[in-house]
Amino acid sequence: MKDTTLNEIKESFSFILPLVLFTAVFIIVPVIWAMFSSVFRDITFLDKKFIFLGNYKYLLADPGFWQALRFTFCFTLVSVPLEIAFGLVFALVLNEKIPFRGLLRACVLIPWAIPAAISARAWELIYNYNYGLANFLCMKLGVCDAPINWLGTNLGAFMSLIAADTWKTAPFAAIIILAGLQAIPEDLYLQAQVDRAGFFQRFYKITLPLLKPVLVVTLLFRTIDSLRVFDLIYVLTHGGPGGNTTSLSLYGYKYFLMGDFGYGSAVSVVLFIIAFVLAVVYVKVGNFSRGIRI
Amino acid sequence: MIKNIIFLFVCLIAIISAGCGRKDKNIITFSVGGAPNEIAVWEKLAVKFEAQSGIKVNVLRQPTDTDQRRQGLITPLKSREEDPDVFLMDVAWLAQFAASGWLEPLEGYSRELGIDPGVFFDRVINLADKYENELVAFPVYIDGGLLYYNKDILFKRGYKNPPKTWDELLKYSLKIQEYERRRNPNFYSFVWQGAQYEGLICNFLEFAGSNGGGIVIKNNKILLNTPENRKALQFMRDIIKKHKISPPNTFTEMKEEEARASFQQGNAAFERNWPYAWALHQSFDSPVKGITGIAPLPCFPGGRSASTLGGWHIGISKYSDSKLNAFKLIDFITSFETQKQFALELGWNPGRKDVYADKDVLKKLPHFSGLRQVFENALPRPNLPYYTQISEIMQRYINAALSGELAPETALGKAQQETRKIFDRYQVK
């Protein structure tokens, strides 16, 4: 890198400058603002007062917060592996030379392209007790004699949300993983075939190790997205039954609506810290500092 | 390439900045919301008002969802925006908005323009529109819970009158259901709102209120876990889980529209709903047209029928730059003619008492004569700026009791314990 000139450095800065500015204005400033707001008693109908960690102290003793935290973790823990598993299978299939590959690739993306609030409405109709598709199929196929109240039990509501979320986001995982698969040089597989490696050997010895950085990126995206899940729950269960499907972002939102901006910010900051720590861990595990090498 | 990008960028900035036009103080911004047919009426009214007064009105449309409408107002008010000047509010947010200092006191304006608050329901003005003795809003239309019943279905089982007590309702329902189920497996006698949202609290307050219970606030302490409330909640749960006269999805999906649809399709004999359902039950393609009756909600032995006060109110922003013009709009909207139009066109229940005695209104909407009494006795929700926080906790626990996760006593005990913390947090000045 001896011949890097000042001009080249300047040029590279001009390339990353828009990104840095964008991140600063739309991400860093709001995060700092939320942190600032969370150390105040910022309630619309009371005088504003600096209370330092007062909101966080209240948060630790708030059962609603713990319920939301528990749900958010469970939701992420179950939905992300499922999404990645389905995404991987889709990607492997779509990477083979199958007929109508282009069309299939486009079709797989459809759930991801539909706005979450709209697909949540569609799922709401599927789960509907009286005229939903799920109950219709179950009754027709004889799986059950009486309609099931899908969203009525804690487990039912949880699984229904997981199914809807997986359906929506597995395609996203599939597309990223597919890009990773296409970056693996064909000759490696030819070489392996010469060495008489079977399908599973090729998958475990070539595909998976070379896919690792891409998988980590997918995992990172999906985990952070899943931690802040809002729209799906807002539409489908609104946090019910009994508040058992309230995610952290929905919980924080409810406090903004009630005029308690300080506490809502504190909930958001906690969510930010969790996501940030996880991101750091992923980046360390993924060894990005060494660059992605094929 | 770079030229293209710059061009797109310039376009973007032009589009964004086009939204920040100059402000004209003669134009008032009026934030409304609701179903499309309701918004259409507001827009029509704005045009009529403009023609009458020469004051231009910019109608700001908001979604139907109540929470989103509230969010759409909190954001500009919190940042002290001049717009919207005048807006509609749900009765449940009035205290929060007033305590936040966002609402302009209206007493002076109404004296100046000669509006007599006495034409409105006294209870509504005193218990909802006044905050700490200051008049901050006027009722546009009001709501109260009612019992709808299907006269045909009742008559077939020999019942001529609607039930007066919950025990009677249960007795009727079991008998009706046994018969109706033979033809209709989806039949559940009694539908009401049990999903986890504000409507659940309105329903709970009616069950509890008809047993002498409710949310009691004494010496800055909230009392929920009372024998009256426990009995009411136990009954709400029993009619779903034990007697099964209310559908199993009551506590997950049942909101106003779900209950209305079920009753309208003939899948229920009794329905608890707001007055808006009447016009829809009577619409030309409704299967229950002409056979729907309304009555006060039943009560427990020794109790009195209770109806939760709902409805929408109109107020002026403290940060408005044309308050007098905004008040003229309020004057127009709460005038006899406009309120009568609300009743005739939308089936809304005006906040003015005199409309209920109007001949045209009574001819088209004969049920109005009985409604006046319901509204005169309607139960308000606690007029506290942190009412939503209390409601939020109650929704969670009452819903958990309905789903069978918690016993009614445990649910009310926990709700009481948690709401007391809310008091500690929000009471200090």
Descriptive overview:
Chain A is built from 13 helices and 2 strands. Chain A has 294 residues and is mainly alpha-helical. In chain A, strands 1-2 form a two-stranded antiparallel ribbon. The two termini of chain A are 21 Å apart. The mean pLDDT of chain A is 89. Chain B has 429 residues and is an alpha/beta fold. Chain B has 2 domains: 18-142 and 311-376, D-Maltodextrin-Binding Protein, domain 2 (3-Layer(aba) Sandwich); 146-306 and 386-427, Periplasmic binding protein-like II (D-Maltodextrin-Binding Protein, domain 2, 3-Layer(aba) Sandwich), CATH 3.40.190.10. Chain B has helices at residues 2-18, 36-53, 66-78, 94-99, 107-113, 122-129, 151-156, 166-180, 198-209, 227-241, 256-264, 276-281, 323-333, 336-346, 359-364, 368-376, 387-402, 408-427, and strands at 27-32, 56-61, 86-90, 130-131, 134-135, 138-144, 146-150, 190-191, 216-218, 221-223, 270-273, 292-295, 309-316. The longest helix of chain B is centred in the C-terminal third of the chain and has 20 residues, at 408-427. The mean pLDDT of chain B is 90. The chains are: A mainly alpha (294), B alpha/beta (429). Chain A binds chain B through residues 43-47, 58, 61-64, 128-130, 149, 151-154, 157, 237-244, 254, 256-261, and chain B through 67, 70-71, 74, 78, 96, 99-102, 186, 195-197, 247-249, 251-253, 262, 267, 385-386, 388-389, 392-393, 395-397, 399-400, 403, 405-406, 418, 421, 425-426, 428-429.
